[in-house]
Amino acid sequence: MKVFLVWSVRSVTTFWRRVLTIRWSGGLSQSPLPLKCGRKGREEQLAPPHRVGIALDEKFHRWTVAFGILLLSFTNISLAEEKNALFVAFAMTKEQESSPLPTDSGIFLRKSIDSDWQRIGPVIQQMASFATDPNNLNTLFIACGNGIVRSTDGGATWRMTTGWRESDVNKVVVDPENGRNVYASSVWGISASYDGGETWQTANRGLRKRFSRSIMVDSRNPKRLLVGTEDGIYESRDRARSWRPVRSSPKIVVLRMDRSQADPDLWIAGTEGKGVYLSRNDGRRWESAAPDLKEANIYGVTADPHNEQSLAAGGWAVGVWVSSDTGKTWQQTESKLPSPNVMAMTFDANVPGRLWASTFEEGTYYTDDGGKSWQDGDLYGAYVWDLGFVKIAKENG
Amino acid sequence: MVTVKPEREGLAGVRSILQHIYGIFMNRINWRIFASFFGTFLASVWFAAATASPPPLLQEISDADLIRQYRERCEYVIDQEIEVTDPEDTSRGSFFTIAANLRRQTNLEWASKRLVAANQPPSGAMFWMHPMVLLMQCGRETLSDEDWAFIRELWRTYFPYRGDTENHWIMYYVSIYLAAEMFPEADGEAWYNGKSSVENMAEAKEYIKDWIRITTSYGQGEYDSPNYIEEYTRPMALLAGWAQDPELRQLGKMMMDYVLLDYVVESLGGLYGGAHSRLYPRYLLQPSLTAGAAHGWLFFNQGSFRRNSGNTLIALSGYTPPPILFRIAHGRDEAYVHKELKRTRWRLRNAGGDPRAFEVDEKTTTPVFKYSYVHPDFILGSSQGGLLQPIQQQTWSLIWREDDPSGKSNTMFGIQPYSSPHEGTMYFPADWDTVTDLIARSKVDYDSEDKLEGGSPYEQVFQYESTLIALYDIPEDARFPLIHTLFSRDLEERVEDDSGWIFAKGGPVYMAYYPLAPGEWKEVDWTGLLKGGAGGWFSTNFEELAAGSQSLVSRYLKNGYVVQVAPAGDFDSYASFKQAVRALPLEVEREPTPFVSFQTLSGVKLEVRYGEALEIDGKRMDYSDWKLFDGPFAQAERESQTLEIRYGSERYFLDFENQRTETSIVGEL
After folding, report:
1. Is B574 found in the same domain as B441?
2. Do A100 and B534 touch (CB under 8 A)?
3. Which of A214, A354, B515, B574 has the fewest beta carbons closer than 10 A?
4. Contact B362/A145, CB-based, under 8 Å?
5. Structural domain A2-38+54-396, CATH architecture
6. pLDDT of chain A along its 397 residues, tens only?
7. According to the model, what pLDDT value does residue A397 have?
8. Does residue B1 form part of some domain?
């Protein structure tokens, strides 16, 4: 019986691995050339490779593991087959001279700390963000100036699914429970798709001003969304069919938002000219935080998924600030980045405590010691529009 | 199954014969080049002589003759495009040159090789797409199977950006429409965006029709640009020339007529006058260099020939303008006021606070009220001021007639230099802290105090016929707390009169300028930014273009000026003009806000304070019923989707909603 079960587990997992491997082939590694954009002569101080994915306790009983894998394989919930990868959306603007065109632009993935950035998707100007459907990792979305470009085969082929009415999309997010619901924020407002991104409709009802840079789905209640607009934070409780302002939100441009996965009641927002705002009651009430940043333009905010106490924010001319007490107090990092102009930030989804920050044209960096030292993550010359983690298939990592 | 070639068989036999003949000529390359240059010389001499001779009276020229002469100019344009071909050099040559050769079936081997070389790799988005479509249309019969396979692969793999301006979008959608129409059965795998030809055509057609609806209802956003006019005539000529869909073909032709009418009623000898949405500094200084001026020669035989890619495309398209436009261009003996309603570019944000702002399909814009006084010898034109267009707005200008405007700086304009993230983020999706820097990466003078173009929220301009009043109320913390006005090198006998007026002569025009506050004379481009070559192509020869011209720079925050223009023929002498102006009642204040009360040469009393409306003989200027076009040669109501073009008793009516035109004769007005 024991031998039969082990054989069964191996057969089933091998089957699913093969299926997923076939579906991914030619996908995420569409452009296998590593991105060569680091500064010459700079020695990369790489941290030791870290294990990713589900870490199994060796004392855990083999039968329990086998049973769990068997169940997962039959229900097509591929937790064992996915991992988190760092993505970046950028335009190479540093070398742009007498031209409105960046020298490069795109979405790139970094699947592990010791791998290079690899391009995913077509080369189009003004790439803004990237998302995968957590329900089906073969479905990928690019938010860009042209609208939404989608792949349903793991990146092998791409299709622009939006029409002429959608453009200048800043962010795209997918309902974590139902991949048919996809939402996008753009300078023209919100667009929603209820068929997996195949067709789109405007979803601005209730928005007093439509310009929006960020949008998030409430993972505990996917009918609920929050969007950061020119007029502050708005909330929808009906899958973007209508919006209402969050009363305590400042009536200013909200640039970025994040929510703590460790404490889902904790939200953080970066604003234009009014610094950092926090909500400790699941986005219902917002208040100003980080007094030293209260007049700053905050382009990067992030909450550590591994530590409910840990937050970070960065912006123009202020560098990176961190908080280790859920935002009660904030400290500027000891070690400075090559530029104080921070455009995007994210905590590492795989490595607890690791913080990534992208500067304006001076590179992307990470720290494993709360900002005492920074390691080079390449992307010198880039104007990073978005930086974050997405789930991808493990086989591709 | 996707076909490799478009739906029409090529004339392979003819092509091979031509290639054979070409091969024979290749063996005598020195003679061929000699003959080419000599032929060009003779053709140029003949053409110059033909076009330089006095034109017959307008009423003596039949429509058939007008069309024939226009077609001759088109053929000359194509000749000149082919003449620049060097069949030995596949490293040079635009898509337009390739297209001209394909049309005439000349230099075919070069064209094929150049097609490949020019796409290593493809770039330029819609500036790649539309000449590629032109090339494909002109090469229907001559491109080889290999050429078509190469072109199809480009469309499959190169993913163009749709752009961030109105002209980008219309070029993008017209191009993808026409490209897809050539391969109507192609599925999504054939195109970069994964959409089938049917899907691409449906989306493109919907956008094109919507753009026409918006333009003919609320005015163009990127209005009246002497530079960018060809970014609209190119795609419209492509539709008029090659769209197989009869609706789009008709709309393309009608919009060509519309754009050209928009230009011709504010043109002077081919030069585009009045207020403009976008203009580069070198073209501000020398109006004869613009694409608008090049169009003036092609369409209306005004000015002189200059190579222009837009003209090449139009000449190849077969589009022919209605003769009434030629008559409007040439048959204007009397001065007239022409008003237009345009709109600002769509505003992404920072649109609040403007009481005139309105929305069209959830996009915010603000009306632009244009006023031009078009005299046979000059055009004085303006918009109301404020932030109407990002970066390159020209709020007002004066141009005057020159017998030969080539090399002349026959213009005058004023500016409050302004740059800010407020303006940048109003129109571009970049961030507050990066947008000014990024704009200045290409429009390098955007953030410079001596720039020659751009709008300002601290500027208000008022005009009545040949009199213009500009008022400024600039905050102390403004980026550039100053105003300046161009006094070009081609203004003669400039004098600073004890009365406070500055007088000058420009061609057949007298000009008087009364500053509300003192200023100092500075050379144009006094920071040396553009003379130093910053900005690439648009500062080419800038030192030469700017040499000798000066700016009157005033650093008073509450400021303004009055401009009074008059034809020299209205006065016995320059002295009598000056005397007449000195005698005009004028009252000015700078505090608490700038104020002017002035009686014009025509005896009308103008009175205005910054922040308030202009009063003309005690009656406030009313903007509430401003029409899309309102002048003796054009009438169109807001939201009408129509335009009536008038000349004498002749009427040409464009109805965009029903895609029809109507020509009629009415009783003399």
Report:
1. yes
2. no
3. B574
4. no
5. 7 Propeller (2.130)
6. 444 444 444 444 444 443 333 333 333 333 333 343 434 333 333 333 333 333 334 444 455 545 544 444 444 444 447 899 999 999 999 998 888 889 899 999 999 998 999 999 999 999 999 999 999 999 999 999 999 999 999 999 999 999 999 999 999 999 999 999 999 999 999 999 999 999 999 999 999 999 999 999 999 999 999 999 999 999 999 999 999 999 999 999 999 999 999 999 999 999 999 999 999 999 999 999 999 999 999 999 999 999 999 999 999 999 999 999 999 999 999 999 999 999 999 999 999 999 999 999 999 999 999 999 999 999 999 999 999 999 998 765 4
7. 46
8. no
Q: Tell me which DSSP letter residue B318 carries.
A: T
Residues B427, B515: one domain?
yes
What pLDDT does residue B57 have? 55
Nearest in space to B159 (alpha carbons), one of A107, A317, A371: A107
Measured CA to CA in angstroms, residue A315 lies from A87, A297, A345, A357, B512 at distances of: 20, 6, 9, 10, 51
Confidence of residue B667 (pLDDT cuts 50, 70, 90): confident
Which domain covers residue B303, as residue numbers? 12-270+282-323
Q: Reading across the β-sheet that carries A225-229, which strands appear in turn?
A: A212-217, A225-229, A232-236, A244-245
- pTM: predicted TM-score of the whole model, two decimal places: 0.89
Question: Domain total for chain B?
Answer: 3
* Residue B131 and residue B94 in contact, taking contact as beta carbons nearer than 8 Å: yes
Domain ranges of chain A: 2-38+54-396
Q: Does A341 touch chain B (CB under 8 A)?
A: yes
Distance CA B119, CA B179 (A): 17
Q: Do A124 and B159 touch (CB under 8 A)?
A: yes
Chain A residues with CB-CB distance to B444 below 8 A: 98
| Model pLDDT, residue A37 | 40
CB-based burial label for B27 (10 Å; 0-12, 13-18, 19+): exposed
Measured in whole angstroms, the distance separating CA B559 from the mean position of its chain's CA atoms is 30
Residues B442 and B590 in one domain: yes
In this structure, the answer to whether residues B624 and B638 fall within a common structural domain is: no
My answer on whether B182 and B287 are in the same domain is yes
For residue B440, pLDDT beyond 90: yes
Angle among Cα B629, B631, B633 to the nearest 5 degrees reads 95
Residue B388: inside a domain, yes or no?
Answer: yes
The residues with which B620 forms a beta bridge, in sequence order, are B615
**Does some domain include residue B277?**
no
The shortest C-alpha distance from A40 to chain B (Å) reads: 24
- Smallest CA-to-CA distance from B517 within B557, B486, B478 is with B557
Is the same domain home to B500 and B422?
Answer: yes
Chain A closest CA to B348's CA: distance in Å?
6
Same domain? For B583 and B600 the reply is yes
Cα angle A133, A134, A140; round to 5: 25
Whether residue B555 sits in one domain with residue B640: no
Whether residues A167 and B444 touch (CB distance < 8 A) is answered with: no
Helix (H) or strand (E) holding B382: strand B378-382
Candidates B347, B338, B391; CA nearest to B367 is B347
Mutating which of A92, A104, A188, A205 best tests the B interface, going by the most B Cβ atoms within 10 A?
A: A188
Residue B245 pLDDT exceeds 90: yes
Write out chain A residues lying below 8 Å of B169, CB-based.
Answer: 164
Q: Which residues in chain A (153-212) have CB-CB distances under 8 A to chain B? A: 157-160, 163-164, 167-168, 170, 187-189, 202, 204, 209-211
| Bond prior to B121 in cis (omega within 30° of 0) | yes
Asked whether residue B4 is domain-assigned, the answer is no
CA atoms of A128 and A107, how far apart (whole Å): 8
CB B385 within 8 A of CB B428: no
Q: For residue range A267-291, list pLDDT tens digits in order.
A: 999 999 999 999 999 999 999 999 9
Touching check for A316 and chain B: CB below 8 Å? yes
